[in-house]
Design brief:
With about 400 residues, this protein is α+β, with helices and mostly antiparallel strands. About 45% of the residues lie in helices and about 15% in strands. The protein has 3 domains: about 120 residues, no CATH class; about 120 residues, no CATH class; about 110 residues, no CATH class. The strands form 2 sheets. It has a 7-stranded antiparallel beta sheet, covered by helices on one side. Strands 8-9-10 form a 3-stranded antiparallel beta sheet. It is elongated.
Length: about 400
């Protein structure tokens, strides 16, 4: 018999025998056919159910129209069936997470992910046959008691599938070996590295929802703790939803997501995806800025670096006279170390910032230095191009 019902909008309520009783046979039928089982994990099963196909006497229990389709009261719903205590905890945190994200979405210009609406929670008893059937399918039920969370069904593609399909498309485009389907967070990290190398760019409008949303969730004292790509749903319109709060907590856990740890840090997925959002132009800009920072660092405190100071003086004289013959001799062959080369580049960059005449002389030298000057290593040529690019900032 059903024991209790907690509605998303109200307090604990007792209700009469027969309320929501269709679950007893409906779930058994769904398990036997597995037609509606969309996911199973360590603690339960998720069913995708068309509420309009439920018998009329039970439809009133499900008349909760989705946010984006207010007229469609009998829409698709998700039923999550699992052990009672875990179900109660998840229902509570799911409601809290949704409220936190709604209250945090105060600026329409700042995109954030959403959390599905938890419509109601039901506790009920099942017979032995149903319990065995549930456990066989991974629901981990004890003592014939189950918890059922009814929530909005989010139509879309989980982020894991989204990334894997992107990797397959890039492999086909680049005529490379397609990756294997990822399963663990480490697999997804490897997939992300493959995508980055392939030139794939992850949509900024989806990434921003995670980047802006996770701090809001944490400020509201909710940590997901299992935030890997399959627990995010991308709707066709690009709206992101966070799902599966079975491992969520209201206290911070120091899990770092390393191999073997039971929980995943929520920030891991941001760190994994952020490099994928950068275009080739973004990466080039970062390289230029890194070069400039490194060269300025080399020239800092030059008076205490006699060797660097002599190189700077030689190049200062060359820039003023517009005569770089000595430098060209240093660049050809292997007479100069990579360390010396970086010192030359650093000195030239700093000198180019000191006066316009020297800047134009250096620019003219770099423009006129042949890309394939006999005896010049490709590394040296590439670093000279980097200097030319940095001077253009």
């Amino acid at each position: 018999m059903s024991k209790e019902n907690i509605h998303a909008e109200g307090p604990l309520q007792e209700y009469q025998e027969g309320d929501f009783s269709f679950f007893r046979e409906e779930i058994k039928h769904l398990l036997e056919t597995r037609a509606a089982v969309t996911d199973s994990g360590k603690s339960g099963l998720v069913f995708r159910v068309d509420a309009s196909e439920i018998s009329p006497e039970n439809q009133e229990q499900l008349r909760f129209p989705p946010e984006d389709d207010p007229e469609n009261a009998l829409s698709m719903k998700a039923f999550k069936v699992f052990n009672l205590e875990t179900a109660k905890k998840e229902f509570h945190i799911l409601q809290k997470a949704r409220r936190v994200m709604q209250e945090g979405a105060t600026d329409p210009s700042v995109p954030m992910f959403r959390v599905p609406r938890a419509i109601r929670f039901d506790e009920m008893e099942v017979d032995k046959a149903a319990e065995e059937l549930l456990n066989k399918n991974g629901a981990a039920i004890f003592d014939g008691k189950i918890g059922v969370i009814t929530m909005d069904w989010i139509e879309g593609k989980n982020l894991g599938v989204y990334l894997y399909e992107a990797a397959l498309a890039m492999a086909e485009k680049n005529k490379s070996i397609p990756p294997e389907s990822p399963k663990t967070m480490e697999d997804f990290r490897a997939l992300a590295r493959t995508l980055e190398k392939s030139g794939y760019v992850f949509p900024q409008e989806i990434f921003s929802q995670l980047k802006h949303g996770i701090p809001v969730l944490h400020e509201g004292k909710v940590w997901h703790n299992d935030l890997y790509p399959p627990n995010m749903i991308v709707r066709p319109d690009g709206q992101l939803y966070m799902i599966d709060f079975g491992d969520a907590s209201e206290e911070h856990d120091d899990a770092d997501g390393a191999a073997g740890t039971p929980l995943l840090s929520d920030e891991n997925i941001v760190r994994m995806l952020e490099p994928l959002t950068k275009t080739s132009g973004d990466k080039e800009k970062e390289r230029r800025e890194s070069d400039v920072q490194g060269w300025n660092g080399r020239m800092a405190g030059i008076d205490s670096k006699p060797h660097t100071k002599r190189q700077y003086a030689m190049l200062r004289d060359a820039a003023e006279k517009n005569d770089f013959a000595v430098l060209e001799n240093q660049l050809i062959g292997s007479s100069s170390s990579d360390q010396d080369l970086e010192n030359y580049l650093a000195a030239l960059f700093v000198i180019s910032q000191e006066d316009d005449v020297s800047r134009e002389h250096i620019r003219s030298f770099l423009d006129g230095y042949p890309d394939k000057k006999t005896g010049t290593r490709s590394f040296v040529l590439n670093r000279l191009k980097a200097l030319r690019a940095a001077m253009a900032i």
